[in-house]
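Memo subject: From amino acid sequence to discrete backbone structure tokens
Action wanted: Derive the backbone structure tokens from the amino acid sequence.
How to read it: Take the token row as a discrete description of the fold.
Attached in line: The record itself begins immediately under this heading.
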Amino acid sequence: MAAASGRCRLMWAAAAALVLTLDAAFVEDLDDSFKDNRKDDVWLVDFYAPWCGHCKKLEPVWNEVGIEIRSSGSPVKVGKMDATSYSSIASEFGVRGYPTIKLLKGDLAYNYRGPRTKDDIIEFANRVAGPLIRPLPSQQMFEHVHKRHRVLFLYVGGESPLKEKYIEVASELIVYTYFFSASEEVLPEYVTLPELPAVVVFKDGTYFVYDEYEDGDLSSWINRERFQGYLNVDGFTLYELGDTGKLVAIAIIDDKNSSAEHTRLKSVIQDVAKDYRDHFHRNFQFGHMDGNDYINSLLMDDLTIPTVVVLNTSNQQYFLPDRRIESTEDLVQFINNILDGTVEAQGGDGFLQRIKRIIYDAKSTVVSVFKSSPLLGCFLFGLPLGVISIMCYGICTADTNGGVEENETSKKEIGDRELTDEGSEEEQEQENKEKPAELSDGEHGQKHIFDKKKD
């Protein structure tokens, strides 16, 4: 029975090893020859470091990406490269952290900045590997694509300087969204364009036409409009919204809390995003965030939920209402006060705020370690503090004893000098006594000579 059980375990282990081997077979290990051979194909590459924890977490996801891309018949090849072993190649591609995911297409390298999930990575690879501008030849094709994409950018018209600019922007922003083109006949009847050519974005159940005089640069406009008007915001979304230059108005709520207060505040944000879009969409992005943990760490404050906060992601400033937001009118008034400068901005990225951030992060790290594992916290922080305390005590004790010994030595030397000085004084006195005696004998000698001369 035991032998059968052992064989069963061995079979399962062998099957698991075989699965891992097959998974890895769809991901090629790249070396220094990759630099010369890559331009003939489109490559999706994970630059990793063997010691990196995030890289190890990505590895099974990366194997799944390789399997699905290979099985779908995509022309994209999936590989991985140890950036520590081939640092010169990694540096040439601009790798500065691990893991770094890039799609390499000819002479171009596109960075992936999205969530590290299988579906998101594959969607990125298929989008960037395909043509920059995808044509829509029929209305049926337009309807099909429109249903699949929540945000859809479309160039309408023939050759023009606007189309050249559209292609240039697409080459830059293809990492974020798709770009399509069509003739005017392909558009639904409800779409009315003031003139041709035109660039249109379809989202939020409607469409908006690019106006160079009102919207400014085409690249900036597309970068702002590539998000829906209302978002479920998380940390990654906030990071991406930093490129838009917009302020982000967020309702901080608990999605699991079905109380009227949480539901009402979420509805207020949604209504303002929809009904006041023409007033605020150039300057504000709206959404809600589940829970206050992330926002508390971002603001270095403890916000009581539900509440509303407006973030300036470009300089880390934020705005808080001075009273509760009860209605859409209250929120609109709060936003208008921000625009006219009557609401004081808090936070920022100044020197004092950076010092505060360092202290806050250090405190948060210590607290989180002790909460998750008190014994580990005591070992990590208690042991170094104990060693430092012992060293300080030893240094202070050594200085004190040394000082006492030096004082005793100096006192002894002073005493010896005093004794030496006293001895020398006695000798001098003795010499002084002897000198007068000698002078007296001389005087007697001279007197004797004078007496002889006198005789």
Summary: Residues 60 and 430 are 103 Å apart (CA to CA). The chain has 16 helices and 16 strands. The two ends are 151 Å apart (CA to CA).
